[in-house]
Amino acid sequence: QITLEESGPTLVKSTQTLTLTCAFSGFSLTTHGVGVGWIRQPPGKALEWLALIFWDNDKRYSPPLRNRLTITRDTSKNQVVLTMTNMDPVDTATYYCAHRSFSSSGGAFDVWGQGTVVTVSS
Amino acid sequence: DIVMTQSPDSLTVSLGERATINCKSSQSLFSSSDNKNYLAWYQQKPRQPPKLLIYWASTRESGVPDRFSGSGSGTDFTLTISSLQAEDVAVYYCQHYYNTPQTFGQGTKVEVK
């Protein structure tokens, strides 16, 4: 059974750096075709794709946020970490991590964490 | 970047009736190398994470009721709920995974009349 759980601060101040951790189980991030992505959702708004890290350590980012985002993995701890610099109140959102596997769902996100709410104060 | 546009933004349907949601991409999501459309549909209920319903535009995820179906190819796609149930009240999103960034549509809210 695949599970993912996000963790991190619930409140950050403007200009600070946010660090979120996605702890997962039930799969290996070194298996061909597997990836973990980050998606956020501001209150009452749509989903926004942020970043994705693949089994081969390839990393992809949302172009508007590329300069502020870093995604890394720790395969020994089964964790994926997302850092976002220079936080602003508009970054207030629920942040989700999600699993994808080409063999199981073709690359769509088939298992999601419950999300973690991040509020940015000015 | 590929832009995903859903219509309508909201939909009110009577129980047992059909609900149809459209999704249009700014470029084709069809890959001739594997004859697949890189398009997924998700359902999100209040205070819950999204749930994958459909991938490859028309393949139902395991455990998803067969009243949910996906169709379309290229740039135009449809999610159909054949007989709306009370538990289907949610926001539905399309997403492409043809390349990155793997953008989502703006969502369609489905309510019961």
The total count of strands of chain A amounts to 11
Order of helices and strands of chain B: EEEEEEEEEEEE
Query: Quick one: biggest sheet of chain A?
Result: 7 strands, mixed
Radius of gyration of chain A, in Å, reads 14 Å
Average pLDDT reading of chain A: 97
Quickly give the structural class of chain A.
mainly beta
Q: Could you describe the 3D structure shown?
A:
The complex is a heterodimer of chains A (122) and B (113). Chain A is mostly beta strands and 122 residues long. In chain A, 3% of the residues lie in helices and 53% in strands. The termini of chain A are far apart. The model of chain A has no long low-confidence stretch (mean pLDDT 97). Chain B is mostly beta strands. Chain B is globular. At the A-B interface, strand 5, strand 9 and strand 10 of A face strand 6 and strand 7 of B.
Secondary-structure topology with pairs:
The complex is a heterodimer of chains A (122) and B (113).
Chain A: E1 3-7, E2 11-13, E3 18-25, E4 34-41, E5 48-54, E6 59-61, E7 69-74, E8 79-84, E9 93-101, H1 102-105, E10 109-112, E11 116-121
Parallel strand pairs in A: 2-11
Antiparallel strand pairs in A: 1-3, 3-8, 4-5, 4-9, 5-6, 7-8, 9-10, 9-11
Chain B: E1 4-7, E2 10-13, E3 19-25, E4 30-31, E5 36-37, E6 39-44, E7 51-55, E8 59-60, E9 68-73, E10 76-81, E11 90-96, E12 108-112
Parallel strand pairs in B: 2-12
Antiparallel strand pairs in B: 1-3, 3-10, 4-5, 6-7, 6-11, 7-8, 9-10, 11-12
Task: Give the structure's gist in a few sentences.
Chain A has 122 residues and is mainly beta. Chain A has one helix at residues 102-105; strands spanning 3-7, 11-13, 18-25, 34-41, 48-54, 59-61, 69-74, 79-84, 93-101, 109-112, 116-121.
Output the keywords.
heterodimer; A: 122 residues; mainly beta; four-stranded antiparallel β-sheet; 1 helix; 3% helix; globular; B: 113 residues; six-stranded mixed β-sheet; 12 strands
